[in-house]
Amino acid sequence: MTDELRKAFTLYPRGVMAVAAQIDGAPVGLAVSAFVSVSLDPPLLALCIDAGSRTWPVLSTADTIGVSVLTEEHAWLGRQLASRTRDRFADAKFDETARGALLLTDAAARFECETESVSPGGDHLIVLLKVVSMDADPSRRPLVWHDSQFAAVTSLL
User: What superfamily in CATH does domain 14-143 come from?
Assistant: First the structure.
């Protein structure tokens, strides 16, 4: 059932996020497609991260974490940030905040966040983040993960 369930889950289109921070002078990050807005007051969002991630234990030590919504032009970066073997930050442009969050330049939306809580969720961790600052550019079209591939958002009307 695991393979069938994984396939079924991919049929729900989701945005792709770069989750990153500067840790001990080096960029640390990963790609996440399990993202949800949680609350406006207080401003909260949630990510689901594989419990077996080797990156999250390092990234979770950051004062603040950047969450950036990748655009259609960032499909290459989505794959690169998910890689276990390549330099995840090669040829990518990120802006560093005063507290060390890395925010992707030219992202559709960018959130600087503090970790509020981390809870187990089966084979993933549910990471609740408090948004401390953000910016967005609605003219930039977000990248979508659908049916195990990247896709573009199109308007129907």
Answer: Electron Transport, Fmn-binding Protein; Chain A (2.30.110.10)
Residue 63: Cβ within 10 Å count:
16
Question: CA of 125: how far to CAs of 59, 87, 104, in Å?
Answer: 13, 24, 23
Give 117-131 as a 3 state SS string: EEEEECCEEEEEEEE
pLDDT tens string 111-148: 999 999 999 999 999 999 999 999 999 999 999 998 88
Q: Where are the domains of the chain?
A: 14-143
Extract the tokens encoding 67.
């969450």
2, 9 in Cβ contact below 8 A?
Answer: no
155: pLDDT confidence band, cut at 50, 70 and 90?
Answer: confident
Q: Which residues pair with 99 in a beta bridge?
A: none
* Pairwise CA distance, residues 61 & 80, whole Å: 22
Rounded Cα gap, residues 140 and 144, in angstroms: 13
